[in-house]
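ok so i was messing around last nite and threw this chain in just to see what happens. nothing serious, just curious
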Amino acid sequence: MKAVICTKYGPPEVLQVKEIAKPNPKDREVCIKNMATAVTGSDVLIRTADMPFLLGLMFRLMIGFFKPRNPILGLVFAGEIESTGKDVKGFQKGDRVYGFTGYSFGAYAEFLCISEEESKRGCLASMPVHMSYEEAAAAAYGGVLAPFFLEKGNIQKGEKVLIYGASGALGTTFVQYAKNIGADVTGICSTKNVELVKSLGADRVIDYMKEDFTESGVLYDFILDAVPNGKINRKKLKAQCRKTLSAKGKYISIDDGSPPLKAQYLVQLNELFEKGKFKAVIDKTYTLEQIVEAHKYVDTGHKKGNIVITMEHNK
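result:
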């Protein structure tokens, strides 16, 4: 099978497409014929290992010092179950599934194996009938992370919510989730993405290139900083956000905590999708062979929503 191998930490060129052996599922695992994955902000962070010294050292001790121990990166997948281990109970060959691989990585490949039991090494769920593989791959990242941050913020109907980075993979998902709860949502993004964020249901959109959100006089009950690490001055933004919080308001950054990988989060997303209350936002689509170009585009910091990678056997 074809897979993308990360040869060392560094720029997009460290990623190479190679032929490797197809994996076989263990007793409680399924083997998935992968149809689509996505290049997430987390993938880029893993590829570069570009972090402050102490945090970077801890990261490398956990993931791999000079290169990832699992050289096949990729956190989200969408495909069809090719085979199952003898003890698998909840899935069968031919099921259309999608999910999040967590610490096990491995989604930049034509086939991958994952346990049917959720853990820090991944979770999977059945796909809605009318959801495409590309939509599923695009939805999985935010679909797992957004509910976690909603729960952490304990957002209630009518509360004022501010999403900084509302046009990204997590931001576009969070806008829709918060609106489905009934929150009053303000999104912050660049000029070119204002109409996109409005189309997702945001009550107000602030163009950070033209307006300072701290000068509006509005106080928020919850602020989510959804901008990937390295794209902004996190310390400065955190100080700005805290000035605009209500007395009991909460500020949460995408870097806060390690979200649990729950299949139930994807089941919740399925329900919203089937009711027409959620749509996956896809900016561009690349093939697996174009993985370097895809990472280069994400590195520009100009993507909106998700960058999807399709596999040859999806054609």
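not much to say yet. The two ends are 15 Å apart (CA to CA).
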